[in-house]
Amino acid sequence: MSFNARITMPTDVRAGEIVEIKVLTRHPMDRGGQSDGRGGTVPRKILNRLTATYAGEPIFRFDMHTGVAANPFVSFTTRAVATGDIVFEWREDGGATYTRTARLTVT
Amino acid sequence: MSSVISPRSRRSEAGHDRRSLLAGAAAGLVVAALPARAATDISPERAQLIARITEGALPERGRITLDVPALVENGNSVDTRIVVESPMTDADHVRWIHLIAEKNPFPDMARFHLGPRAGRAEVATTLRLSQSQTVTAVAALSGGGFVMADADIVVTLSACIDGG
């Protein structure tokens, strides 16, 4: 399994506070096009989208192309409104998806 | 013995001269390039790439900061941070931020979709650059306008050394 994600964000925040969420993903982000040694080329295999949903509502989307580095890092912000799960979903070329969840507690 | 050492020392002297000459030439280039940057002219290729994502609209400069290193040793991973001055309210917010590298095999690198719930229009990521070039960030505002910023990056090790 070549996918792994590390999500860094505060767990306890006050309502209205702006939270910075940092996501570091382990993924080769193979841009494709190299020779596979049998006369063909290696197909592109990257994570092409990261969606973040906070308490059921989408808050952030990151469309990635081959210009995003291997092991992509992304940082974004959201305003804390209510205690809830932030769900991160990645979509990989070929249709595979990966999901991770982080809990944000708002006081 | 001395006959071996002295040619070496001469070569080293010559190398030093060549280096200082190159450094001087590079400094001259930088100085010569500065007025051109101030004029903010955009190459036709880059203008076309920008027009394609803004549907023809010409983005304004200002209100957006693109923070990238001026020189990177490894084009495989370039830390990038984009900040747009925006209140991020329902009426006035940043819809998305798009990153273009004109000389990459695929110039469109990434797009961040934001909304009023972001609180602050600030994103960071790591990019992959094939060569030294100008990186452009274009942000779409909720009012229908666009803002842009660009930065020149010198890449010493390309991200595409295996010929891809």
Key structural traits:
heterodimer, A: 107 residues, mainly beta, Immunoglobulin-like, 5-stranded mixed β-sheet, 3-stranded antiparallel β-sheet, 54% strand, B: 164 residues, alpha+beta, 6-stranded mixed β-sheet, 9 strands, globular, disordered N terminus, Sulphur_oxidation_SoxY (chain B), SoxY_sf (chain B), Ig-like SoxY domain-containing protein (chain B), TAT_signal (chain B)
DSSP summary: helix tally of chain A: 0
Label the structural class of chain B: alpha+beta
CATH superfamily of the domain at 60-157 in chain B: SoxY domain
Could you say which overall geometry of chain B the principal axes of the C-alpha atoms support?
A: globular
Q: In the CATH hierarchy, what is the class of chain A?
A: Mainly Beta
Task: Specify the CATH architecture of the domain at 60-157 in chain B.
Answer: Sandwich
Tally of distinct domains of chain A: 1
How would you portray this structure in words?
Chain A is mainly beta and 107 residues long. Chain A has a single domain, classed as Sandwich (Immunoglobulin-like). Helix content of chain A is 0%, strand content 54%. Chain A has no helices and 8 strands. In chain A, strands 2-8-7-4-5 form a 5-stranded mixed beta sheet, with no helix packed on it. In chain A, a hairpin with a 2-residue loop joins strand 4 and strand 5 (57-64). Chain B has 164 residues and is of the alpha+beta class. Chain B is built from 2 helices and 9 strands. In chain B, the strands form 2 sheets. In chain B, strands 1, 3, 5, 6, 8 and 9 form a 6-stranded mixed beta sheet that branches. Chain B is globular. Chain A binds chain B through residues 18-20, 22, 29, 31-34, 54, 57-79, 81, and chain B through 76-78, 81, 99, 101, 104-115, 117-120, 122-129, 162, 164. Strand 5 of chain A pairs antiparallel with strand 6 (108-113) of chain B. Chain B: InterPro entries: SoxY (IPR032711), SoxY_sf (IPR038162), Sulphur_oxidation_SoxY (IPR016568), TAT_signal (IPR006311).
